[in-house]
Amino acid sequence: MQLEDHTSKTVAVFARPFTVPGFDETLPAGEYDIETELSSPPDHHNPEIWKASVMVHLHPRTSHPGLARSLTVSLADLDRARAKDKLSGNELSQVFLEEMLADPMVQLVMEADGVSEMQLRLLYSGARTKP
After folding, report:
1. What would the pLDDT profile of 63-78 be if each residue is shown by its tens digit?
2. Which letter does DSSP use for residue 27 in this model?
3. Beta bridge mates, 8
4. What separation in angstroms does the CA of 71 have from each of 5, 80, 88, 106, 113?
5. What is the pTM of this model?
6. What is the DSSP string of 53-121?
């Protein structure tokens, strides 16, 4: 099997600057070429513990315009950064809340229990109400 068969190439678009764990630089908004390993490489010693990783091709720094840089991150870390960017920089709990409120089954349970969208938003905001 060829190496190309193990990777998928795509583009991730970030509307605002973002960060990923373990990398001390805030990355600028824009398009990033992404390479994702789809399966463990044939020479990997233990395929059972292999974890999907993503190589992000970074924009060159203005101080070193000819220097090509890339960053390898976990698929989960890239997904978190993309989810946060998708919802205007909201935290992951807000991403979860928006997805939950969009679910028709959740809407039915909320209606049956007499819970409003406003009540759930207040709960997830962490704001306290007077008793």
Report:
1. 888 888 999 888 888 8
2. B
3. 36
4. 21, 16, 24, 38, 47
5. 0.55
6. EEEEEEPPPTTSTT--EEEEEEHHHHHHHHHHHHTTT--HHHHHHHHHHH-HHHHHHHHHHT--HHHHH
| Cβ–Cβ < 8 Å for 83, 95 | yes
Q: Tokens 């463990």 identify what position?
A: 40
Contacts of 49 (CB under 8 A, 6+ apart): none
Element (H, E) at 106: helix 104-113
∠ CA 84-89-93 to the nearest 5 degrees?
A: 55
Residue with the two structure tokens 């398009």: 31
pLDDT of residue 2: 45
Contact criterion met (CB below 8 Å) for 81 and 18: yes
Taken in order 46, 52, 57, 63, is the CA torsion positive or negative?
Answer: negative
- Residues 6+ away with beta carbon under 8 Å from 83: 92, 95
